[in-house]
Amino acid sequence: MNTTTATQQQPGGKIWIAVFIFGFLVLMMDGADLMFLSYSLTSLKKEFGLDSSQVGSLGTITLVGMAIGGIYGGWAADRFGRVKTVVWCTIIFSVGTAVLGATQSYWQFAIFRFIAALGLGAAYVTCNTLMAEYVPTKYRTTVLGTLQAGWSVGYLVATLLARAIIPVYGWRWLFYIALIPVVLAFAMQWIVPEPQAWIAANAKRLQQKAAGLANQVVEKTENAYKTIFSNPAVRTMFILWCLTAGFLQFGYYGIATWLPTYLEQETGMAFKTMTEYMVGYYIAMILGKIIAGWVADRIGRRAVYAFGAIGAAVCIPLIVLYSTPANIIYLMIAFGFVYGIPYGVNATYMTESFETRIRGTAVGGAYNVGRVMAAAAPFVIGFLADKGMIGVGFFVMGGAYFLCGLIPALFIKDKLFDPQKSN
């Protein structure tokens, strides 16, 4: 790895710019990878002879894999380093996704999709932790909010690639091109050093272990989850973030899965028109994330996060009850803007809630416990849709967003720990 000096690693140096570029590209490819599956489902159903439940299960397998990957990825980031973990996660989801192009059955596809999802989930959490430990507090959320936009840019990239590749070359080539991020991973390993906060915390852990201090101290250093659950204040914060992240992702994945179906079935929107809307929707989401980060650095993470989540909860019933073919585009673009706000603040808000030595484990664990709830969301709306109540399903998602905003508004303070200090 590049032996960049400590001075260069500091916020005013050049290296944090490289960290941002790499992190943005990794998250962009992470987001694109998720959408590759969505755009390929029709082709997979036809080629492998799948029924609707099997098709839906591929999304569930992805979310479960991402949850497990995120939990263990956070632990690996604390134990082995942020950069090393991002590099290996990128290799795992890149190679795992590329292999999907060669699969010949549902079970082959499901197995390698799960493997790739482990890398996807871990990369998302670890990239945010890495970036948080490089950016100064005064504009950390602006940078991390922009970093989150990489995921939405990935959605746009996947849309354009799918449109260009699938009709001409078929779905398999859409997955083969996922090998490209491997090059990025090797470059990142060479260029980006581990953040000073993690180096200091890791050195302290190794010194305690080498010095043979009391078993209790060493055990707490080695096992971040024991540290989390043995301290009442940390345990409470972890549980609060599990609930908040759970409601956020329950609403997010439920709406993301069923929104196109809702637009076509309930508003009579043509597929081409819907595609054009999706571009506008993603652009609005990107702007929402960037602006949310900028505002959060000025008035606080807590207020902006709560505003975005509760704003999304308010927009959902407006869409269900008052949308018309004439205004649906404008309502959904407005919804896309507030829908993106919590994600623009989430990374900074969570990472500042935990001290350095357990940060990766705590953030990875809390965020990815939420993915377990997310896995259920598409089925909840699907069940209601079968009964002709897809709008009711959207109200359920709105309720999840409301709780996602209410919990931090009442219980989670801003800036409890500075990620650039080895607290």
Sum this structure up briefly.
The protein is 84% helix and 0% strand. It is mainly α. The protein folds into 2 domains: 6-198, MFS general substrate transporter like domains (Growth Hormone, Chain: A); 205-411, Growth Hormone, Chain: A, CATH 1.20.1250.20.
Residues in helices, as a percent range: over 70%
How many beta-strand segments? 0
The CATH superfamily label of the largest domain reads MFS general substrate transporter like domains
User: Which H/E pattern describes the elements?
Assistant: HHHHHHHHHHHHHHHHH
Shape assignment? globular
Q: What class, by secondary structure content?
A: mainly alpha
Number of domains: 2
* CATH topology descriptor of the largest domain: Growth Hormone, Chain: A
The main β sheet shows up as: none
CATH top level class name of the largest domain: Mainly Alpha
Low-confidence stretches: 1-12, 214-222
- Helix run count: 17
- Reported CATH architecture of the largest domain: Up-down Bundle
**Oligomer state of the chains in this structure:** single chain
pLDDT average, as an integer? 84
